[in-house]
Amino acid sequence: MIDLRTLHATFKEESIQGRYVTNDMLFPFLDGLSDLFEVAVIGESVLGKQIKSVTFGTGKFKILMWSQMHGNESTTTKAVLDFFNLIDSNSEIAKNLLASCTFKIIPILNPDGATAYTRINANEVDLNRDAQDRSQPESKVLRNAYESFQPDYCFNLHDQRTIFNVGVTSKPATVSFLAPSHDEERSISASRGVSMQLIVAMNKELQKYIPGQVGRYDDGFNANCVGDTFQMLNRPTILFESGHFPSDYEREETRKYIFCAIVKGCQVIANQDIASYSQKEYFEIPENGKLFYDILIKNADFVNKSLQIGTDIGILFKETLKSGALTFVPFVEITGNLSNFYGHKTYNCLNNKDIDALKRQKEIFNLI
């Protein structure tokens, strides 16, 4: 069996990297796609920015994907570009996918949010809470794409914060999945069952590469979410969440694993191997916890004597756009006894080496 990480190394699109991805970066890549791909303008954002789709393949199984519904969630967009490169490779995998499936992919659904690096659109609406009202032009674009394409499967592509861990472990949730509910009872309809089976297939693949770093989102029902809505329409829908990989704040490593998941999911659909995977194993994927801070400073009172004895500090990074560049600005999220929490980077102020390391990071040390 081929190692999908090897495929990614071959087909990674090097021209677009980092967390800040906009139409201005995307469109030159789309303009360079071969005749295999049909690139079309399918609508406009609140501020009049074009929203484009890419359609390809001739197969009977139709797969709709959309990314950057939240403008500041770009990891899956990068993985989609890598997927385009694979599809254009004339490889056996590409031939199989093209012959078995037809794809419609919207790389950036919320271009205004992408430019501003915000979750919301220019009207300050979360598009993933607008599935019923469809009050926003971007929401209408997605629903129109759904109605005209009539997909058999939907991939809803997102990013998640660095706070998530897998279960109660100290493993970060590098990739998380959800088979959205279609009713308040969270019952398993035929379409939701298929979503679960596809997630099991992708999880099995990812466990080869990032064991213990795949989580499952809470499946509380919300009809205003797009995934829940499409599941209500009896279309198997999967939520992908790109999370943190150690020291990978630009999410170039996570990009790789999202690519692997997309390829595996599409292969299972193309080969109609879905029945080979058990719905039961979906529930064996641990739910996400929220036990991480970007930086955890233990025993901070040893440095700041005004703090209560045994006080820890949990620091998160605020992703801030400055002059077109993304910066990670630390701020104190919480102080107290954080013995049950983890840090992507941990310092213990009882250790002189850790104190010296903190002093070399003045922006962080000044928060103690």
TrEMBL record:
Superkingdom of origin: Bacteria
Matching SUPFAM superfamilies: Zn-dependent exopeptidases
Domain Peptidase M14 intervals: 7-346
Stored Gene3D superfamilies: Zn peptidases
Record keywords, A-Z: Carboxypeptidase, Hydrolase, Protease
Keyword hit for Hydrolase: yes
Molecular function (Gene Ontology), one example: zinc ion binding
Signal peptide (residue range): none
InterPro entries hit by this protein: Peptidase_M14
GO biological process: proteolysis
Family: Belongs to the peptidase M14 family.
UniProt protein name: Zinc carboxypeptidase
